[in-house]
Amino acid sequence: MDFNVSEKMKTILGMIDEFVDKELIPLEPEFLTRSARSLLPVLEEKRKMVSQMELWAPNHPREFGGMGLDLIEHALVSEALGRTPLGHYVFGCQAPDAGNIEILHQFGTAEQKEKYLRPLVDGKIRSCFSMTEVELPGSNPVMMDTTAVKDGDDYVINGQKWYTSSADGAEFAIVMAVTNPDAGPYLQASMIIVPTDTPGFNLVRNIPVMGHAGEDYFSHAEILYQNCRVPQQNLLGPEGHGFVIAQERLGPGRIHHCMRWIGICNRAFDLMVARARDRIMAPDRRLASKQIIQAWIAECAADILAARLMVLHAAWMIETVGKKEARNEISLIKFVVANVMQKVVDRALQVHGGLGMTDDTILAFFYRHERAARIYDGADEVHKVSVARRILRSYEGKRVR
Ligand SMILES: Cc1cc2nc3c(=O)[nH]c(=O)nc-3n(C[C@H](O)[C@H](O)[C@H](O)COP(=O)(O)OP(=O)(O)OC[C@H]3O[C@@H](n4cnc5c(N)ncnc54)[C@H](O)[C@@H]3O)c2cc1C
Question: Is 0.90 surpassed by the pTM of this model?
Answer without folding.
Answer: yes
